[in-house]
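Chain X:
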Amino acid sequence: MFYLDKSTLQDKPDLRRLGKGTDWGAEYAKRQKSARYPALKRFYAQGAVSGDTPLCEAPLVALDFETTGLNPKTDSIVSIGLVAMTTQRIRCAQAQHWIIKPDTELKSKSVVIHGITHSDVADAPTFNRVLDELLEHLQGKVVVAHHKDIETRFLNSAMKQYIGEEIVFPCIDTMSLEARFSRTFKRTFLRSLLGQKTPSIRLTDCRSRYHLPYYRQHNALTDATACAELLQAQIATHYSDEATPISAIWC
């Protein structure tokens, strides 16, 4: 998992307007009619999770990518990890991990971070070979990610390259949730004067605040699982009412 700066994360207007107040059912119905790629059309035809669905009943899938670099315009996906989940259970038997042959150069700097080497990707499938299965895992679920802009930007960049279409879906961003939950992240002028730093909201640091175990970072499946566990801890800590609708935390 990489972290992108704000200048890299400037979404197109059509995608930027979608968010917390979106009627995802209507959005999916509209896009199902216009989608050309069969697996994408099936994804939208499955329908979106209703925003009224209680947190405890919502079908979720945690998703993480490892990439060749930080810029979706010049870098590409090198591995995908995902795991189906609910707020009470992580379905490890349904987990999936792909090593992907990247469309761009596998840089030595990224190899040091995620440990995926040139020999690992030599015979790996290209993104389009796993796209249909990936969409099947995502359909009918709310995506969970830590710093969701990484996944959405890299996924759409790859899809546009291979099928000429992009995808939208409701997403829960555990990093944004952590910033929302803790007032300590609101850095004040007084804190600045005292030299106090704003607490980190990186995945590992967030997990430590909930006393979750340390996992080695930058394996897509491990990070997806770590994100799933973090969301469960966040909900257990901050939401006592199991009837809280999923729309209260998606974006």
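Chain Y:
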Amino acid sequence: MTQDNGCCVSVCQCFFDYATPQILVIRSRKVGAVNRLIQAIIVAYVIGYVCVLKRGYQDTDSVISSVTTKVKGIALTNTSDLGLRIWDVADYVIPPQGGEVLQRPGSPKNQAEESSFFVLTNLIITTNQTQSHCPEVPTPSSMCSSDRDCVPGFKDVRGNGVRTGKCVNYTATNMTCEVMAWCPLEVDGEPPIPPMLADAENFTVLIKNSIRYPKFNFNKRNILPYINNTYLKQCIFNSTTDPDCPIFTLKYIVSAANEDFQVMAVHGGVMGIQIVWNCDLDMPASWCTPKYTFRRLDNKDPDNTVAPGYNFRFAKYYKIADDVETRTLIKGFGIRFDVMVFGKAGKFSIVPMLLNLGAGLALLGVVTVVCDLVVLTFMKKRNHYKAKKFSYVDDFALLSETAT
């Protein structure tokens, strides 16, 4: 019973314990140096990093952006299929001119919005195709020795038409299944080197970008207020000599990404034009200007040459005698340019400033924890400090002494 009573008393005393801070002034150069060093680090972090570098005193908003593009330029080609031909913007920009993309409210912050335009740089042309019958291009599935190897109506997803059920001569030594298709069939191969539209490197593109920060009711264009029609007709973007001009040559865009335009134009590729609007709206509005960077987006792996670049097929249709529909099939290689807009704006607000200052002041509590750890664990006189730091006042004992 005595032991049980002792345990009950101990539990009761622990339950009713109350700890209150005790101020203990330790005159020690080591502890004082640690104390001031940590305080200096925390103050430097709050003021230098949070407030100055990260502008923790500002409220922020993400960009809403629209982009339109306009390509200009003329190219001249001379081929056996097409003869001497002039190519203008209606021929080599597919689809016609870049559209507009608007970032919608509610999109993730700092999300890049993208507007694309494609410029044709190389071609494989198959002329005078009509709807008729012709032998399929030789593949393991289209090769045959008799009509029994060709199922009528069969459509090979990798083929060019619908099989008629006949096995016909493709060459003097090869036989393939006959198909109903646009004949003669395209013979796919390597694109010409140098590229047919090598002059495309001199084409220019005007990029018009309008941005808005709705929280701050702030609007701006990349065609800055001082830019007039005279300047716009003669300027060409250069990051060193003319960084505000919104007109870019395609060669400059590709070169700025450390690529060779003539090499890239053979098989095509994808280029990224990045426009960054990071604006401090506590400063004059004229300081808010776009920054342009360029990079290649498609994977260019020298060890993997399968399906390189960027290409697709399209056709131009017309009718000849007897109302026969004819087409010219073009496998077009070219460069797709993706215009991506990033941005964040900040402006002073009392709420984020107080939140960040409060968080910084709370960090000062770490100083006491670290210094106590040093004093009570690593100092030679740690036992002496412990005796000074922790004092116990037993209210029950005082009551007993008073009663006595």
